[in-house]
User: Fold this.
Amino acid sequence: MNVLIDKFDVFAGGFWLTLQLCLLAAIGALLLGALLAVLRISPVPPLRAVGTGYVNVFRNMPLTVVMFFAAFGLPALGSNADFLRIPVIDSLFTRLGTDLPYFRFALIALVLYTAAFVCEALRSGVNAVPAGQAEAARSLGLTFGQNLRYVVLPQSWKASVVPLGSVIIAMIKNSALAGFFGVVGDLSATADQLTGAEGYAFVPVAIGISIGYLIMTVPLGALLDRIEKRQAVAR
Amino acid sequence: MSQQTSVLYDVPGPRQRRITLISSIVATVVLIVGAYFLVYRPLDEKGQFSMELWGPLVDPANENFTLVWERIGLGLKNTLTAAALAIVASLVVGTLLAVLRIQLKSFTGRRFTGLAAPVAYLLRGLSLLLSAITRVCVEVFRGLPVVITIFFVARGFPEFGISFDTLWYLVIGLTIYNSVVIAEILRSGMEGLPGGQREAAAAIGLSPLQATRMILLPQSFRIMLPALISQLVVVLKDTSLGFIISYEETLNIGKQIIGVLGNPIQVYVVIAVLFIVVNYSLSKLAQYVQRRLSQGRKTAGTPAQQPPAAALISQAEGGGAGGAGT
Assistant:
C-alpha cells in the first residue's frame, strides 16, 4: 500500500492531467456537437447531409481508430495541431503548449468522437419537444431561427441534460485511452508505468487509479440520476 | 426524424425554395472547395493517393494484396470472435446480475417471519450486505473506463498466477464492464414495468423468483431490445481496445501491416470503413427493432408506456470507448 503514499504526487498529477484533458475535450465536444446538431436540423439539405454523415461515421468507428487517425492523419495534413497552442489557455493547461503533439492529438480525437454523441443527445432533446410547440410557433409566424431560439431550444435543453451528462461521463472514461497513445503521465499511463516499468505491486496501484476515475464518474452519475428522478416526477 | 425536423419550418413556398436551392449550392461549393484545399491538396502533395500506398489494399494484381487481406481477414475473425464471446458472456452474466439485484432488493424488504428471531435478523443482515456489495460492484465497474478494466485484467491475473490467452483477457475485461451495463439496462426495464405485473404474478401464486423469471424478465428484454443491440455495437467497437494487450484483432493486424508497408492512413481508412459498415447495419437493425416494437404495442391496443429507453440507449452507446464506449 506504500505506493499510494510514496507516489501520491504521481497519482495526483495523473488525475490532474486526465481532468485537464476531460475539461478541454468536454468544452470542444459541446461546441462542435451543438454546431453539428444545428446542421442536422437545418433546412438546407447538403448541410443536413454533412451532419448526418459525420454522426454516422464517428459514432460507428472505435475511438481507437479516431485516435490513430489523429496521430497519423494530422501530420500527413501538415499540421501538428499547433493551432491549439492558444496563448493564455496554454499557460493554464500546460500540455497544450508542449512540443510533443500527442496531448493535442488525443484531445482532437476525443473532441471529434464525442461531438457525434453530443449532437445525438441534443437532437434527441429537440425531438422530445412536442410537435405542437413548434407548429404553434410557426403559425404565429416565427421564422426557423426564432422558432428554435424562443420556443424549441429552451424546452429541448431540459430533455437533453441527462443524455448529455451520460455522454460526458462516457467521454471521461474514453479519455483513459489517451494514456496508451503517448500522452505521458495521465491516469492510465500512470497505471502502465507504475505496474510495468517501475514494478510496483499491482493491487494498490489498481486501487489508486480506480479511485482517480471513480472520483470523476460516480458523483456525476449520481447527480444525473437525481436530475432524472426529479424530471420524471415533474413530467 | 425527417418528420420531426420538418415541423420546425413550413413547407417551403417558391421564394423559400429558391433560397434553399441557392444556399444548398453555396454550401456544397464551399464544402467541396474546403475539402479540396484543406484535405485533398495536402494529402496529394505528400503522395498519399499514390498506388504505391493504396495498391496492397485495393489492387488485386498487387503482390501483397492476397497476403494483406488474409491478415485483415484473420483480424476480423479475431475481432468477431472476441465480440461474440464477450456479448454472450455479458448477456448471461448481466441477466443473472439483474435477477440477483432484483431478488436481493425484494429480500431486504422482507421480515422473514416464521423463522427464529436470530436467524431472521441474520438473513436480513445478509441480504442487506449482499445487496450493498452488488450495488458497489455495479457502480465501480460502470464508473471505470473499459480500457482500464481490460488493462487491469491483463496485468492483474498473471500477478495472481492465472494466465490465459490474450483473447480471454479481452473477453473477461469486456464482459465485466458490459455485463454490469446490461444488468442495469435490464433492471431499469424491469423496474419500469407497471407494478400490476408483479402483483398479478404474486396473486396467481408465483414466487418472487418465478415472477421475475417468467413475467418481468421477458418483458424487460423486449422493451430493452434496442438498447441491448446498441450495446452490441459498443462491444464490437470496444474489441479494438485489444490492441493495448496485443491481442491480434483488426487494429493490431493493421498496425503490423503498417509496420511492413508504411501506409498508415490507407490501412486505417480501410479498417474504419469495415467497422462503420458493420456497426451502421447493427444500429439500423436496432432502429428497425424499436420501430417494430412500438408498432406492435400500438396495434395491441395497450397504452404506449414510455420506457426510459432513450436515455439508456444514449448512455449505452456512449458507454464504452466505442461509446461512448462507452
Q: What stands out?
A: Chain A touches chain B through 70 residues (CB under 8 Å). The CA atoms of residues 29 and 111 of chain A lie 5 Å apart.
